[in-house]
Design goal:
The protein is α/β, with parallel strands linked by helices and about 200 residues long. Helices cover about 35% and strands about 15% of the residues. A hairpin with a 5-residue loop joins strand 6 and strand 7.
């Protein structure tokens, strides 16, 4: 995975509550045998009108937010089914972090496993961030994971909390397998000791 340290970019407001994974990645985009092309499916029914043309009213189709690196989202974002494709699509679209007050549990874990930072703020903090980034001229922010801060265009700084194991994995660009392999020598040493003590296992 790509490590997450300090990233700057525009942040798009998508503040409706309970946006589920079927909205994020509709079911017709789950048929592939690999992860390719999921950026096309991301928010498909919101991004496009029935004719297939981009919906000019959707935030990610508007110039100030078309290359957004961050989404500022409503409560319980990512609820619904556990489809990991939703996170894969966000990542392919260039979304590096989600900023909200709460996320569905499995979706939150899927973000972690795929290098997307999910930041949980208080309602007051989120309201402040949303006010600033909803204006095109001040939509650009910086997220500093080592410092655990969000820096807004008006100069204000919003701190956030994160589990330290999740933080270290994101900083190092490690998924669960990569994190486990950091202890490969210890694992091999345990296997050798265990087989020596229990030779019948071999």
């Amino acid at each position: 995975m790509q490590p997450f340290t300090r990233i700057s970019g525009s942040a798009a407001p998508l503040l409706a509550a309970n946006i589920d994974t079927d909205v994020i990645m509709p079911k017709q985009f789950l048929k592939g045998i690999d992860r390719q092309g999921l950026d096309r499916g991301l928010f498909f029914d919101l991004r496009f009108v029935p004719s297939g043309e981009p919906n000019p009213d959707f935030i990610l189709n508007q110039p100030a937010w078309s290359d957004a690196a961050f989404l500022v989202v409503g409560a319980n974002f990512g609820c619904g089914s556990s489809r990991e494709h939703a996170v894969w699509g966000l990542k392919q679209m260039g979304i590096r972090a989600l900023i909200g007050t709460s996320f569905a549990g499995i979706f939150y874990d899927n973000c972690q496993r795929n290098g997307v930072l999910a930041i949980q703020l208080t309602g007051v903090q989120l309201k402040r961030v949303a006010e600033v980034i909803s204006v095109a001229a001040t939509a650009r922010i910086s997220v500093d994971l080592p410092a655990q801060t969000i820096e807004l265009a008006d100069g204000s700084v919003i701190p956030f909390e994160i589990d330290q194991l999740r933080k270290q994995a994101l900083l190092s660009g490690l998924d669960a397998i990569g994190t486990t392999l950091q202890r490969a020598e210890q694992i091999r040493a345990f296997e050798s000791r265990h087989l020596a003590a229990n030779p019948w296992l071999a």
